[in-house]
Amino acid sequence: MSSKLETMTRWLSDQEQRAWRGLMDLHAELWSAVARDLQANSGLSQGDYAILACLSEAPGRRQRVTELAQTIRWERSRLSHQLSRMEKRGLVVRTECPEDARGAFAEITPDGLTVITAAAPEHVASVRRHLFDALTPEQVEALAEISAAVLDGLRQSSSAGMNGST
Fold this sequence. Notes:
Elements: H1 2-8, H2 14-42, H3 46-57, E1 62-64, H4 65-72, H5 76-88, E2 92-97, E3 100-108, H6 110-130, H7 137-162
Antiparallel strand pairs: 1-3, 2-3
Helix pairs in contact: 2-6, 3-6
């Protein structure tokens, strides 16, 4: 059986393997460096920042919890625990949805807005320092195109899977 699987597998070329491993290392090290800076400069975790940024940009500075989970690509239970921690710190509040008794909104508080407004410039500086300062404008454009192409493929695969096709 393994010989049949071996012949059916499209193994990565050396170049593809190098690119894949480089992407994994890039993601881990970049995420870690930006998270360290964020924590040191503002006391926020990446999760705190993601939630506060989304809520600060949302209409009325609030969003349905289910939509927020989709936006930041988190499981609802993970988001619920994070929101609880942030509520205790006065950064967000949850309110019931009048149209849906099972639904809830997450809303940024004035303190949360102050915190994200203060953290954003340093966060952007960290992203610029650790990512964009190392790239040429052409590389930034290539990165944007590559990201869009891969995300488009993932979304098409995901929607095809939801429709029952492969």
